[in-house]
Design goal:
By secondary structure, the protein is an alpha/beta fold. The chain has 12 helices and 11 strands. It has 2 domains: 179 residues, no CATH class; 126 residues, no CATH class. 33% of the residues lie in helices and 18% in strands. The strands form 2 sheets. It has an 8-stranded mixed sheet. Strand 10 and strand 11 form a beta hairpin. The protein binds iron/sulfur cluster (SF4) (2 copies).
Length: 345
Amino acid sequence: MKVFRLSQTELDSMVQGWSQNRRVYRPAAGRQQSAQADCAPGWERVAGSSPLTVATGPSKTSVKTFLFPQPETMQTYTLKSSDPDKGLLKEPEKTTGKQIIVGLRPCDARSVKLNNLPFREDPFYQASLARTVMVGFTCNTMCATCFCDQMGGSPMGTEGLDIAISQVDGTMIAEVLTPAGEELIADLSLTPAEDSDINALAERRKDCPQADSAKLDALKSRDLNKLYGAPVWQALGESCINCGACTFNCPTCYCFDVQDEVVRGQGRRIRYWDSCMFPLYSLHTTGHNPRGQKMQRTRNRFMHKLKYFPDRYGPFSCVGCGRCVQDCPVNIDIREVIHDLLAVE
Ligand code: SF4
Ligand code: SF4
């Protein structure tokens, strides 16, 4: 692994250099839709020479929007009777060229690896992943809603990143972690980090909060199926208004719906983000809804993250970014849910 020292000027000119011939995105200050057509809400294309600084905590919207876009065209077709291909499903035009995401946090980088478990055979996700390079900033400060250290991550984590940039004692240190990261810096003349930088980085990593394995183990060893009828679910269901903010803003929620959209005879089969918090999500065509009550939907969200996903793939489907805690209008807090579940006798 190569490790470099960077000044703010070097970082800015490096990122601007990448943006000359590649799409480079950085977190925007708010969650609004960018004026740039190819840019997801909450992100902006790097252009010009403004210095690259990133606000404390995770970006307003998660990085999943680059790998699992909203919406995403899966197939196209025509219904025009004059067209000999009428009714034939075709592959959409492929987006090519690397995209570089700069300024994401360790929690989001880890979420990309988690989503890769259910999407490992999804050609759309895999194609997006293959053309994405992630240059993340580790965290010196955890927000009040951050709890990556309780979900198996770390504020100084590098999992999923191609380049990790850390601020240690006033020095910016870049760790180049993958061949994709090396490709980005191949033509640059950067200053190798000194031993003192590397030692300081290692010290910082040692000192920062580590995964709270006792809590993780306690949660893993708890048979949550036995808590299916626990009163905690009823109380949560009564508070929740099923707005879906928690799931849409969650980097590890990946449910989608497939719809057809036809405009003047030209059709697109699109997938849109969906949410298990919505009653229509689980409604059968028979009219039966196995999760027709709010309590059932709320329970399903937490059971998916803490039981069904780990049963199937290993890790919990939560990276502790805290977005759902910040965004829930009725203050439902997954940390309290975990605490309450562990407290049930
Ligand atoms: S954000 Fe809160 S109120 Fe909205 S669906 Fe999620 S848990 Fe329910
Ligand atoms: S469940 Fe909440 S804290 Fe966990 S990854 Fe999703 S938004 Fe972040």
